[in-house]
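Hey all, sorry for the wall of text incoming. These are the two entities for the joint prediction.
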Amino acid sequence: MGSGAVTVAGVRGDVGDAAGDGGGDGDDAPLVVAARAGDRRSFRELYLRHLDDVYGRMTRIVGPVSERDDLVQQVFIDVHQALPRFRGEARFSTFLHRITINVAYEHLRRRRRGDDRNLQLPDDELDRLVAVGASPEARAAEREELARVFQHLAALKPKLRIAFVLVAIEGMPLADAAELVGAERDTVKQRVLNARRALSERLARLDRAAARAGGSR
Amino acid sequence: MTTEPDDNDDVDARVIAPLRRAKLAVDDIHAARMAAGIEAGLDTRAAARAQPRWQLLGLASVCALGAAAVVAVMAVRGDAQRATHVPRPVALAPYVYVGPGAETARLSPAARLSVPAGAKLRASAGTAVRLTLVGPGAVAASTVDGVTELALDGGLLLVDFDHNADGKLRVRAPGVVVTVVGTLFAVDARDGGARVAVMRGAIDVDAAAGRRRLVAGSAWASGDGDARPILPALAAALAEHDASPPPPVGDYVVVDERALGDPPLVARVASGSRAARNRPAARTVDQAPPLAAPLEAPAPAAGTAPAPLAPDSNASPLAPGSEAEALYAAAEVQMRAGANQQARATLRELVARHGGDPRSEAALLDLARLSLAAGATDDARRFLARLPDPTRDRALVEPARHLRCRVDVAAGAMASAASCLRAFRGQHPSSPHDAEVLAQLAAITDDCARARPLLDEYLRRYPAGAFAAQARERQRQCRPSP
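and here's what came out:
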């Protein structure tokens, strides 16, 4: 079977509010106007309203790395800086998440230039991602699973990783993802397909290596 | 290479599904902490934008911006290519830490590093800057137009700037602008104002009274006109900083532990390089002078000398505020490690010993949250009862009010909960918790006539919210009979 078997459909709509609209842009508008005029309280309200979405998206894209909080802060500082240029042609959440994607992309690009083979994921950061109430053993297993997931994602090139997270994991429609990353819809679709293929190959390779290791014992 | 459907299933099951299950919400304290970082970043940018006018209007106007001392360093040539007039975070790479929580401290690069009272942190920024930060304090790094800026937010900063590197060094602090080219110097922002001391090289200090040149061995304080000799303790600290091993390369591990006082402090240093293996970096740090003394000697005569500059040998090594900060930092480490019982003890100690400290509010809130998570709603109520409303810390007002309502709901005090939730919505109409609060309010409102508008509002505002399915079902049940 060819690459057409790799689907990007079937995941849309599973994750609600993927664009991170929170309370809706209609509610954001007065806050944006006030924040643009220098009202820090309004900007703080915008921050509180959209923090979970930005934090979640940043975590999915860059992983629960130690720099993640700094990157989230950087997003909001950049947004504040760019507010005078925001004229409301797009939704505020789109504007915000474009900046989120840019900051995440720059981070991944810089990291990739360095040594990306040893992605450091602090246990406590992983632990925060695990559901509360599980047994210690279950939590440990979930932590390990998530660590593997982020290692897999780290093996993807930044643009593939971002497209994969937005479309395959968050369930964002291709058109919306294309708008966010500033690319054509078909380009984003191809990136998601390439990411899926790369992940499939990586998983298969790891399974073969594990089987060989098991067989040699 | 082809991709079979099974491969897709594999990716779905082993990559997509676990990440979709991950819990990605930010807790209130975490959100408040990041908000503080953003506020600081915005202040730094505002100060940077105001610089030209600031120089025209004089230094007094900038003093009002706060106690942050800004050290500007030309460095990081790669970042110069991305110059955009917009500060970008720069990684500070810590490689030695001595202080509370060293056993679990993460020495990973970050744009902002903070240390509690009694702690010392050594880090590098690019190849041109090596610094030692003595807590309590924090330092953040960013670049603007190829200039790396270190923003000092409290603490004592010892800096070694490589004069062979490109660029020059600027120091901005309340009341002063310092310009240097390659030197060993210190900036102190511990007692308000700014103090500068030079061990090697020379610096130009611009202040309200004009420009003055400081040469090696001299010190100066804002609000004071005359240069003075550096105190021997500080000179020794600068010399020790200068002689310390270079930043090592490799993973970070604990290589040395030693008691440094009560509570015991341990050192965590980086290892992996020849420098770290061959030279006992931690020992060098441990043997450094206590650095509790001010930067310059007392004024020779009464008159213009600022009073707080005289060394006080009887002073506690930890000021009350600093100790509260250290305790809170320790509690944070314990909470993140899941050691909630120890965290509770530390937070209780903080509240008992430093009830007037602003951190005691955060401690009470944490204690209430921990109690609620453990199902001890009475304890949670007791802690919340000790919190003023509104809290003095503005960042905690909304989380504290929300927690009060959650405790009422958990305790089954529905009348009180309904009143609390309604008041919360009035006070915080744009709260990030609004969906949850609205859902709770609708859920505990038994009367259909009163529940209907709440359900309608919930579905209108949060059609994909977690409560949406239940809200629709309840809406159906509450539909008036034909």
